[in-house]
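Annex B, item 7. Sequence and structure tokens for protein A, then protein B.
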Amino acid sequence: MNTLDAQLLKAHEDDDRPALVALYQEAAKTSNTDDAAGFYLTHAYIFALELGHADAPLLHATLKEMGREA
């Protein structure tokens, strides 16, 4: 298991939602496919929405650019 995977699991275990926003964004940046990036960004966006996180509008715009929203 790589470090990022371990960090994601730990953040989920701790219910550290701010960390999850950042870690899922990092996972998207390092993913190998657009589908994987979309998956990770969607998770980051959901946690960002729940928190009222400042990155939520940017995540939403990125997902729209990727065609992930109708």
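Protein B:
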Amino acid sequence: MKFFRRHVGVAVLVAMGAVTGITGVTAGSDSTELQQRLDGLLADSRYQGSQVALVVRDATTGEVLYDRNSGNRVLPASNTKLFTSAAALETLGADFRFHTDVLTTGKTYGGVLAGPLYLKGYGDPTSLESDYRALARQVAATGIRRVVGDLVADDTFFDNRRLGNGWSWDDESFYYSAQTSALTVAPDTDYDSGTVIVESAPGATVGAPAQLKLIPQTSAVQLVNTSKTGPAGSAYTLNIERDHGSNVVRITGSIPADDTGGQDWVAVWEPANYAADIFRRALAAEGVQVLGKIRTGATPATSRRLAHDESMTMAELMVPFMKLSNNMHGEALLKRMGNGDWDRGLAVTRSYLQSNGVDVAAMRMVDGSGLSRMNNLTADGIADLLVAAQREPWFGAWYASLPIAGNADRAIGGTLRNRMRNTAAANNVHAKTGTLTGVTALSGYVTNADGRKLVFSFVSNNFMVSPRPIEDAVAITLASWSDRADVPTITPNGQRVAPAEAELECSKQKDC
């Protein structure tokens, strides 16, 4: 099962990022010694039979201080988001906002709207149930109390490709691989668009079905519950799975009577219908009755607008997108840059990267999130962007959106909050993580012990035992390095991370 409950896994994450710390002190800390330290870390047996790329540069001059295979193409996972986010800030602007409209072609007679109501999305990946309530209040404020017509969900601003090229079929029902739609709903303030939360708890008695609740409440998703409540202390085997091609979610297995309950995220099939259902419920709560059915369609150009909602700014959106590595935000941004078209968005992104010295001929980028295994980037290209981005007017917002090592505040530390704690890298390393099966990546900024700012990109592929402790040790080494004083030798711990744990980015576990 690939759903992850919010209340489990923190101890695992801390262990995954642990390093043993100082094992010795050596004298003379010039760049040659730095190269020796990094060479020693990359000689770890965990890299046998795998690929690794690491480049370190001076952030101001771009001078290369260390290079191991930086020109080789590697699978970057969520380091792809560095490219998407930078291009979006440049193309759309830090003050850009998504929006959602309610429109009609009908006329109103004494509180009755004769004609359909159109809910038109423009790609907002942060739309919450509360935003649809706000739209419903605006409609009610016009005096409309009854709609004699259908509620039409319009997601035509985006193309109809719901999933990215090369996305894995067995991830399709899981929230981190949700469908991309111009009209969608997020169930939480992580803004996991296109998903619902299934909240579960033990039944009242042993043998009773598990108690379930949908967040938000919607009839767009059907729960089929054949689960049971097991005796206290029994095994937890509850499984929550959506049927392919439908919104039937089946709950099977057993939940112990003494379990505290939890939440699981499920990707919704065709999110536009889900959004329309949430909006229809919001209208009813505001005293507006829709007599027709929910259907999909395009809004006529002759429609007049009844209500309008705007998202947070692009600069604000960068925080949940980058801190929590939200895949669906990456795809929404990519399509928006392409005026709704995935391929045009990719072309816009490549054009921006090329204008900043990134060798786009040496890379392949097929999505905005890094979920696809068809992506191939180079550590050199990532470092090129990291150096160039510092000149951009939006750099402050972008830099602030990167996860910060060892900072326990989830909104600040993000996917690095449980890594490199109590080291020289803590509250120092600002970097984007990346994780897929057999892939781990970390690229960003670090200030060394002399106050010298560095950029680095570190990507590992095709390993059998996770080298993430080495990844952390490299970052700590860079943070500890000084030209003027002895520097400790940092060594990774010898703990073997279980394969299933090593394959999951912190964002996918929902307790990060």
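Comment on protein B: The chain is about 25% helix and 25% strand.
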